[in-house]
Amino acid sequence: MILTRPQPKSFHVKSFGCQMNVYDGDRMSELLTGEGMVATTSDAADLVVLNTCHIRERAVHRVYSEIGTLKREDGTRPMIAVAGCVAQAEGAEVAKRAREVDIVVGPQAYHRLPELVTAARSGKAAIDTDMPILSKFGALPVRSKGQRTSAFLTVQEGCDKFCTYCVVPYTRGAEVSRPFGAILDEAKALVDGGAREITLLGQNVNAWDDNGIGLHGLAVALDKIPGLARIRYMTSHPNDMTQGLIDAHRDVEKLMPFLHLPVQSGSDRILKAMNRSHSRDSYLQLLDRVRAARPDIALSGDFIVGFPGETDADFEDTLSLVAEVRYAQAFSFIYSPRPGTPAATMCDQIPKEVMGERLQRLQAVINTQQHAFNVASVGTQTNILIERAGKLPGQMLGKSPWMQSVHIVQPGIVVGDLIDVAITAAGPNSVTGTPPEKRKAA
Ligand code: 5AD
Ligand code: SF4
Predict the structure, then answer these.
(1) Best of 170, 237, 304 to mutate for ligand 1, by most ligand atoms within 8 A of CB?
(2) What angle, rounded to 10 degrees, do the helices at 312-325 and 280-293 form?
(3) Which of 99, 104, 100 has its CA nearest to residue 89?
(4) What's the rounded Cα separation, in Å, for the pair 408 and 93?
(5) The domain made up of 10-128 is a member of CATH 3.90.280.10
(6) C-alpha to C-alpha distances, 161 to 3, 145, 158, 170, nearest whole angstrom
(7) What per-residue confidence (pLDDT) applies to 3?
(8) Which residue, 81, 22, 16, 21, is CA-closest to 46?
(9) Residue 417 contacts by C-beta under 8 Å, 6 or more apart in sequence?
(10) Could you tell me which residue ranges the MTTase N-terminal domain spans (predicted)?
(11) Coil, helix or strand at residue 305
């Protein structure tokens, strides 16, 4: 192979989409740093990695328009790698559709990025969309210093549920759990590297298992790591919510009182067409059990509006479910037909205007609930983990155990501090925390 292009000396990784992409992006950065490359901005980098999302059509469009804009300050084009789920779903087509692309690497193959960079130096696009999930983790370098205060740790990948609207089973493959020991080692390395909170990630994270340990057993083990203050996990499927995991919300001290449990629709007819394999009632009963174990738990969900065949009555069922649950926060999306999924070819696709109206109505209800949740916390005392500086001078931003963003102004606090505060004011998207000294002085 004749190498006509120079070895990149600097790189920039840009991640789109979910938290798992943030995790993968961090691991790619650590890998490239280990190869002697230096992280820099996208307009200076010799190599730009776009870590892409394929879940909705809009996410895919963003990637292709981003590729067109990639130019360095000196007017030359960097080496461009398309990683993530668009790479997996479209493979070599990516390089055909966007001729600027030099590397296409799927989410299970990015440990081979250094070899692909070498191959691309020949001037020919290098493609790797193999799916050997566990060998990826084994081949990546151990986690380095300088980790995020709130770090992600992928413990499970892929999905066997095949909801009829979703590309994940095709882009991330079958459900695979990483081994218990490897996860524990990585968690300890993250804490050594500065993490105080770990969010366990998986497309079906609560399906994680290694010889019957289950996610609750993993939480118990992580609870014992000195220096780790908080444990979270996402995203879960209702059918994998075991009693053990529910009980862990009562028994495991560091497991935070927050549960992201998507339901997608409140209509049994639509849930069936979505192949969700749970009903509205079974979901509500499950939440009753979760609340019995942990009464203060904050609930979050995902919703799709405008799934094929969704009638006004079906949508009203979704609104009534939301009213019944009282979410602390939730995400809602307009249905996006994805190539290759069963729902994309179902008849009765819903007109755009109808979907838009339904989304607005649903989001208005969810926003009201989120605000109400924040207002209800005013007057309570809690502790927050400081994650970053705020926009105003002297302001820092932290998270409450219930995932609320908390603004605080207090000299001397730094990222990574866990501090006690009183919640003194609430807005729709955040609350204000006041430190103990100020409260005494007031
Ligand atoms: N259209 C719209 N939203 C989708 N989601 C998954 N697939 C689609 C789609 N085709 C949403 C679901 C899921 C979240 C991650 O994205 O609500 O829980
Ligand atoms: Fe997609 Fe359904 Fe699997 Fe979630 S459970 S990743 S929505 S197929």
Answers:
(1) 304
(2) 10
(3) 104
(4) 48
(5) no
(6) 44, 36, 9, 11
(7) 84
(8) 81
(9) 385, 386
(10) 9-122
(11) strand
Bridge partners of 441, per DSSP, are: none
Q: Is 248 in the pocket of ligand 2 (CB under 6 A)?
A: no
Q: What is the rounded end-to-end Cα distance, in angstroms, of the chain? A: 73
- pTM greater than 0.85: yes
Q: Where in the chain is the domain with CATH 2.40.50.140?
A: 381-441
- CATH 3.40.50.12160 residue spans of the chain: 10-128
CATH architecture for the domain at 149-375: Alpha-Beta Horseshoe (3.80)
Q: How far is the CA of 106 from the centre of ligand 2 (A)?
A: 19
SS3 at position 317: helix
No. of helices (H) and no. of strands (E), the chain:
15, 19
Q: Among candidates 275, 81, 287, which has minimal Cα distance to 168?
A: 275
Amino acid letter, 338:
R
Q: Whose CA is nearest to atom 16 of ligand 1?
A: 55
Write the DSSP symbol of residue 75: S
Instruction: Considering every ligand atom shown, identify the ligand nearest to the alpha carbon of residue 262 and give its number.
Output: 1
Residue nearest to atom 1 of ligand 2 (CA): 166
Rg (CA), the chain: 23
Reduce the DSSP state of residue 81 to 3 states and report it: strand
The CATH number of the structural domain formed by 381-441 is: 2.40.50.140
pLDDT in tens, the chain (442 residues): 788 899 999 999 999 999 999 999 999 999 999 999 999 998 899 999 999 999 999 999 999 999 989 988 788 899 999 999 999 999 999 999 999 999 999 999 999 999 999 999 999 999 999 887 668 998 999 998 889 999 999 999 999 999 999 999 999 999 999 999 999 999 999 999 999 999 999 999 999 999 999 999 999 999 999 999 999 999 999 999 999 999 999 999 999 999 999 999 999 999 999 999 999 999 999 999 999 999 999 999 999 999 999 999 999 999 999 999 999 999 999 999 999 999 999 999 999 999 999 999 999 999 999 999 999 999 999 999 999 999 988 899 999 999 999 999 988 899 999 999 999 999 999 999 998 765 554 4
For residue 232, give both structure tokens: 């979270």
Exposure letters 155-189 (e unless 16+ CB within 10 A, then b): bbbbbebebbbbbbbbbbbebbbbebeebeebbbb
- Answer for the pair 422, 376: CB distance below 8 angstroms, yes or no: no
